[in-house]
């Protein structure tokens, strides 16, 4: 079993179900995305550049779906929040699967992927 699979299977509910659902949407929406396990969390890359990652922040009661270049996306996608005062990363906080607007999330994924493809590097700040 891959480390990323172990990560998901070791999560408590409802986080496990939320993460597995988000993972499925990502993989089905972006066939060229590369799933990898780095820094003890799942990352989703376009080529070698990280686009987003899934995490559960300590002391929080939600899954953090964090977009690496989220600061460039937040104007068009107001669902992205600046949690933890991060300079570049913006995220969607999910407490349940129902919190995710599937259609808008797929649109966000496509726009974020294209942005990463066109950028010289993922981390620019």
Automatic annotation (TrEMBL):
<protein>
    <recommendedName>
        <fullName>YdhG-like domain-containing protein</fullName>
    </recommendedName>
</protein>
<dbReference type="Pfam" id="PF08818">
    <property type="entry name" value="DUF1801"/>
</dbReference>
<feature type="domain" description="YdhG-like">
    <location>
        <begin position="16"/>
        <end position="109"/>
    </location>
</feature>
<dbReference type="InterPro" id="IPR014922">
    <property type="entry name" value="YdhG-like"/>
</dbReference>
């Amino acid at each position: 079993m891959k480390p990323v699979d172990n990560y998901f299977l070791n999560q408590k509910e409802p986080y496990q179900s939320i993460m597995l659902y988000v993972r499925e949407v990502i993989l089905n929406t972006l066939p060229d995305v590369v799933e990898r396990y780095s820094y003890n969390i799942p990352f989703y890359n376009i080529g070698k550049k990280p686009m987003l990652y899934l995490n559960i922040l300590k002391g929080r009661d939600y899954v953090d779906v964090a977009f690496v270049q989220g600061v460039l996306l937040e104007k068009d996608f107001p669902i992205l929040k600046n949690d933890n005062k991060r300079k570049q990363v913006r995220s969607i906080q999910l407490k349940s699967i129902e919190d995710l607007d599937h259609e808008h999330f797929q649109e966000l994924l496509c726009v974020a992927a294209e942005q990463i493809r066109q950028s010289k590097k993922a981390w620019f700040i």
